[in-house]
Design goal:
2 domains; 197 residues; disordered N terminus; four-stranded antiparallel beta sheet
Length: 197
Amino acid sequence: MGEAIISRRGGGGKVIKGLIITPSTVNQAIPKGVHDGTGYVKGDANLVAGNIRHGVNVFGVIGTLKERFKSISGYESKHLSIGPGDIETFTITLPLTPMFIFFYPTTGTNLPDMSTFSKIFQLSYGNEVGAKYGVWSKSGFYTDPALTDAKNVTDGNLVYSIIDVSGNVVTYRIQNTSTSGYTTTTDWNFNYFAFGL
């Protein structure tokens, strides 16, 4: 027994002290050498079935979490001056991570009754999405052409678009495509219905 220990150390094995391994998405090689016994693999109290999506296996823990979609409707108003050729971009932070956003613009004090969203949304299923209604959908989430083709909303010379969604932050653009005319100063309202996680 003593000879075996001497042989291991005599072979030039490096003594490794306090090695701490943090689990990740890939296998991690354990360094070759003699470990002093103070190292460990990190644990996490959050590694429980209720925190893992249903059916997903993480280190032998099978998830039981069944996520439920949430929905929200509202509007964001910006007081802007928009003239020929102008482009205005602004962001909206939603209280959820959207998978689907149904939106339409209004101006001035013409704010929507949020109960009308359900009526407008029902029209979309009859392929009757009007020019003043638009839709953003996370890639692959919703594929009905009646909605997915309505990403830009055109109202006269103005084009309204959702140009980016990162997490719960929505980037929205208003573009005046006219090459001449007057500058309009008013409240530009982004009205939306969204659902997600």
